[in-house]
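Sample pair:
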Amino acid sequence: MANSGLLGPYPLTAAEIDQRIDTSIAAFALGRKDGRKFLVQHIGRADKDASAALKSLVGDYDYFKYRTYVSTRRAYAKECKLFHDFPSANNAGHPEPPPGIRVKCPVATCRLAD
C-alpha cells in the first residue's frame, strides 16, 4: 500500500478542521479507519480555502489527511500522485488542473503527462 505523505488522519469535523487548517491551498484524502490503517475513499484539492472545502464534506467521510502548499501547481501535482497511488478512491476521474494554469500530470505513465 502506498504512503500518502499527508498529515493525519484526523476526525472530519468542523472543530478539527479549524484546529488544523486555515484558508490554505491543500491536497487531501478522505476516508475511514480500519484499526490503525487509513482507507482512502476520496482524493481532493482546494485551490483557495481548504478549510471551507473540507467543512463542506463533513458527514460524508469519517477522517481526513492533508498537506498544505504554497501554490496550486504543487497541490495539483500531489492530488494527481494520490489519484494514481490510490486507484480504489471513488473519484469520478483524473483531477482537473487549476483554472488558468497550464500544468501536466507529474505521473509519467499517465496519458495527461504528455
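The chain has three helices and four strands.
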